[in-house]
Amino acid sequence: MNVAGVKDLNAPRIERIFLNVFAADFNTRLVGGAEEPLYRPAANGTPAEIHYRHDYRRSALHEVAHWCVAGPRRRLLTDYGYWYSTDERGLTKQAAFFCVEARPQALESFFCEAAGIAFSPSIDNLSLQIPLDMLEQFQNKLCWEQEQFHKHGLPERAARFTQALSTALN
Q1: Which of 3, 57, 107, 155 is placed for a possible disulfide with 65 were both Cys, Cβ 3.0 to 4.6 Å?
Q2: In a domain, 37, yes or no
Q3: What is the total count of domains within the chain?
Q4: Looking at the domain assignment, is residue 64 inside a domain?
Q5: pTM for the model
Q6: DSSP 8-state symbol, 8
Q7: Which domain, by its residues, includes 66?
Q8: How many CA atoms within 13 Å lie on the side-chain side of 127?
Q9: Per-residue confidence of the chain (170 residues) as pLDDT tens digits?
């Protein structure tokens, strides 16, 4: 139990929830312990794997959000065919990062709420002095994405995962 008296969903439990919800339909599993996040598509009879950092439950939820955003073609590609760079990005790459991160982080916020875990946006770049207006633009985009999900509902996989997290918490 955490301070508020809510049952805790730790990373291994989140992995089991993901497996129960998606293994049969999507041949995908969630795997902790990675130094860096990585998505590996299914190959040679092995299931697809979503690797998240160490045993960080927020990392697990974040990587599931990326998986929920990725369409069928992207899920055939390592890391969905996107680039990942460490936190030594300049302002141009940081702006590109913010463009692709608002939607997954909006989904992550729903996952966190369902799991009883505090959410805060991630800039994923601690080495860069990011201008306040750039941070505000990202925050506004994130809020807009959250509002769209509230208005129109979550995508099917995200809705299933959110429901499963909420059910496990109660």
Answers
A1: 107
A2: yes
A3: 1
A4: yes
A5: 0.90
A6: P
A7: 11-169
A8: 7
A9: 344 444 679 999 999 999 999 999 999 999 999 999 999 999 999 999 999 999 999 999 999 999 999 999 999 999 998 866 665 677 777 777 788 889 999 999 999 999 999 999 987 766 667 789 988 999 999 999 999 999 999 999 999 999 999 999 88
